[in-house]
Write a structure and sequence with these properties.
The protein is mainly α. It has two domains: 52 residues, Butyryl-CoA Dehydrogenase, subunit A, domain 2 (Beta Barrel); 140 residues, Butyryl-CoA Dehydrogenase, subunit A, domain 3 (Up-down Bundle). It contains seven helices and four strands; from the N terminus they run ββββααααααα. The strands form two sheets. Strands 1-4 form a two-stranded antiparallel ribbon. The chain has a two-stranded antiparallel ribbon with strand order 2-3. Strand 2 and strand 3 form a beta hairpin. Helix 2 runs antiparallel to helix 3. The longest helix has 29 residues. The radius of gyration is 21 Å and the shape is globular.
């Protein structure tokens, strides 16, 4: 019997007796996540989501939908950053500052990548609207989008220079992207999913066959 067959998904009210919530401060100063401590917390059977021992499917489906729909906010955010980078670079050129051709190519590639993500996200959203179950497309969108986000803010700092690093908007956002490829499944996990379920490659040697 697979190990994940014993997992159940439940809804837990935040005011449940015995539940302690402690914020986790990230290196950018934000506290978007928390650690939870359960001390004899009791959950009614009616708060189980889906069937008992069926939590693995609930979790995977939830994450797949999250990966597919997150492109909306992600694409808008990345498009705004690219526009700002292009304006800043244009201002530097207009002021007579020398700008390396390599930097110009990186900016152009960032714009192209943002458009590719937008179009791929729209295709994925169309599948959801048609009632199709999320597939490995969510992993592709998440992997490519988050890796591009890291590269994009590295580019933004390179274009902004020291002033960008000191600005909370750019410096803080850059630090936030360090965790982008961890939350919701690491990039390594999604690469394995794509390799196995899309490309039909053998299962990773370290993977637990019973998981």
């Amino acid at each position: 019997k697979p190990k994940h067959a014993g997992i159940s998904c439940v809804l837990i009210p935040l005011d449940s007796p015995g539940l302690t919530i402690r914020p986790i401060k990230r290196m950018n100063g934000d506290a978007d996540f928390n650690e939870l401590f359960f001390d004899e917390v009791r959950i009614p059977l009616g708060q189980v989501v889906g069937p008992l021992d069926g939590g693995w499917k609930v979790a995977r489906t939830t994450l797949s939908h999250e990966h597919l729909t997150n492109f909306l906010g992600q694409q808008l955010s990345q498009a705004n950053v690219v526009d700002r980078v292009i304006r800043t670079l244009a201002e530097r050129i207009a002021a007579g500052e020398p700008v390396e051709a390599a930097l110009r190519r990186r900016v152009a590639q960032a714009w192209v990548n943002t458009q590719v993500l937008r179009l791929n996200g729209m295709r994925n959203a169309a599948k959801l609207v048609q009632g199709q179950d999320p597939g490995p497309e969510g992993s592709i969108q998440k992997l490519v989008g988050q890796e591009e986000e890291k590269r994009l803010f590295e580019l933004a700092l390179d274009v902004q220079g020291a002033a960008g690093l000191a600005a909370p908007r750019w410096g803080g956002a850059y630090l936030s992207t360090r965790a982008s490829t961890i939350g919701g499944g690491t990039s390594e996990i999604h690469r394995n999913k794509i390799a196995e379920r899309v490309l039909g490659m053998p299962r990773d040697l370290w993977a637990d066959e019973e998981a």
